[in-house]
Amino acid sequence: MTIYEFAEQIIYEAGQNIKNKLALELTIETKSNPNDLVTNMDKETEQLLVERINQAYPDHHIIGEEGHGKEVDTLDGVVWIIDPIDGTLNFVHQQQNFAISIGIFKDGEKYAGLVYDVMNDNLYHAIAGEGAYLNDMKLGALADTTLKRSIISLNPNWLTKDWIKDVYTPIVKDARSARSYGSAALDFVFVAAGIVDSYMTLRLHPWDFAGGMIIAEETGAVVSNQMGETLHPLQSNSIIVANQQLHREIVSGYLSRYEKELTELHQGMFSSR
Ligand code: 2AM
Ligand code: CA
Ligand code: CA
Ligand code: CA
Fold first, then answer.
1. Given this model, what pLDDT does residue 269 score?
2. pLDDT confidence of 180, banded at 50, 70, 90?
3. What pLDDT, on the 0 to 100 scale, is given for residue 169?
4. What is the DSSP letter of 44?
5. Considering only CA atoms, which residue is closest to atom 22 of ligand 1?
6. Which of 20, 24, 81, 256 has CA 20 to 30 A from 248's CA?
7. What confidence tens digit (pLDDT) does each residue in 138-148 have?
């Protein structure tokens, strides 16, 4: 079995385990603020994935949102970057619209991405260089779009914040329409599948984007931070993912005029992972 096949197997197992326990009462704690939640199922799912990987591949490294791999600071060897439940608020409130996300790197190179939309039983997956799939269906190369003809995904919370609203309001105004899904991993694969044309957010951690980035790039999507710079898989960053033309239009036509402010924001927010 390849590492990729093994990853598929354990992501399905972890998803099934979540489904089996949906009716059970959740233990919910808060993290950085009252709306930043973590449940026992986030922790249990990370634990399940980590145990399986450790057992099969004791020399692999694992970074997970719920505490694993804080010491991992290089991409040497094989590195798994895991978000056990992406969209925890959706999981708690809706029992749907959440995903398990896995990104795998081999000796510093992208190797594979898997994002499992658990309740719809949709697995988005890609081996770098071999194209992206939704279940058995190969996803086509993204067509270019203009903002005027694009649906973009953006959390409306950003439009309530001081000067940040000035950055995004013109983009939302000029787009055909905007949506918000509440799971960064799903937003990435929705771009890959052509469901939305762009996803933008100001703050993601490696586990939020590792899997989705590899899948989206396999469809020709461009992934960068909001200054148009390449992401480092081990560093938190802002994000814009879009088809090639739309990425260029939004970065150079809308975001670049706020480059100074965005750069200062990044320096304040991303001093650590
Ligand atoms: P999470 O559900 O795994 O925490 C919600 O808008 C999206 O942003 C989710 O993908 C969520 O991931 C992510 N996110 C990143 N940092 C967050 C934070 N501090 N609070 C809430 N959501 C966060
Ligand atoms: Ca979280
Ligand atoms: Ca997440
Ligand atoms: Ca999470």
1. 85
2. very high
3. 97
4. H
5. 36
6. 81
7. 999 999 999 99
Residues of the chain with CATH 3.30.540.10: 3-138
**Residue 141 DSSP label:** P
Does residue 181 contact residue 190 with C-beta atoms inside 8 Å? Answer: yes
End-to-end CA distance of the chain: 33
Angle between helices 3-20 and 40-56 (to 10 degrees): 150
Is residue 271's pLDDT more than 90?
Answer: no
Expressed in angstroms and rounded, the spacing between residue 123 Cα and the centre of ligand 4 is: 17
225 lines ligand 1 (CB under 6 A): no
Around ion ligand 3, residues with a beta carbon closer than 5 Å are 83, 86, 208
CATH 3.40.190.80 at 147-269, yes or no: yes
Out of 63, 153, 155, 183, mutate this one to test ligand 1's pocket (max ligand atoms within 8 Å of CB): namely 183
Q: How, if at all, do strands 37-39 and 237-242 pair?
A: unpaired
Looking at residue 35, what is its pLDDT? 94
Instruction: State the pLDDT at residue 73.
Output: 95
Could you give the percent of the chain with pLDDT greater than 70? 99
Determine if ligand 1 sits within 6 Å of the CB of residue 184: yes
Which of 33, 66, 89, 155 has the most ligand 1 atoms within 8 A of CB, as the residue to mutate? 89
Give the domain 3-138 fold: Fructose-1,6-Bisphosphatase; Chain A, domain 1 (3.30.540)
Q: For atom 19 of ligand 1, which residue has the closest CA?
A: 36
ipTM of the complex, rounded to two decimals: 0.96
In a 10 Å sphere around its CB, with 0-12 CB exposed, 13-18 middle and 19+ buried, how is residue 245 labelled? Answer: middle
pLDDT of residue 270: 79
> Which residues surround the ion ligand 4 when the cut-off is CB under 5 Å?
65, 83, 85-86
